[in-house]
Design a protein that fits this description.
Bound molecules: zinc ion
Strand content: under 5%
Order of helices and strands: HHH
Distance between the termini: 24 Å
Number of strands: 0
Helix content: over 70%
Radius of gyration: 25 Å
Structural class: mainly alpha
């Protein structure tokens, strides 16, 4: 559980840093592009390709983050509840029909 939260938070920070770097790079590129445009009109096609590549990278990062969060949610759902674990370890008692008092699942 905690590992997943740390992973998601870490990923968020990682993405944030990536976004900041990308924004800095883009503004730097824009400034350089302006200077280049003032001098000559070459190199614009290369910059357009870079911008579209960055946009694709953004979309991919957002998708990856969404997938990670979804995976985390699925993990939580599939994870057995604490009471079930305690019953299986013998530290807690189930109801007489072997169902968990917490989640109602059948524990043996
Ligand atoms: Zn349970």
């Amino acid at each position: 559980m905690q590992g997943w939260i740390l992973l998601i938070v870490g990923l968020g920070i990682f993405l944030l840093v990536g976004v900041i770097i990308t924004v800095c790079t883009l503004s730097c590129m824009a400034r350089r592009k302006k200077k280049l445009q003032e001098k000559s009109k070459s190199g614009i096609a290369g910059n357009t390709a870079l911008v579209s590549a960055l946009q694709q990278s953004f979309a991919y990062q957002a998708q990856a983050l969404a997938a990670q969060i979804e995976a985390g949610n699925n993990m939580q759902q599939d994870e057995e509840c604490l009471t079930c674990n305690l019953i299986q370890m013998g530290s807690s008692m189930a109801y007489s029909d072997n169902t968990c008092p917490q989640c109602g699942r059948r524990c043996v």
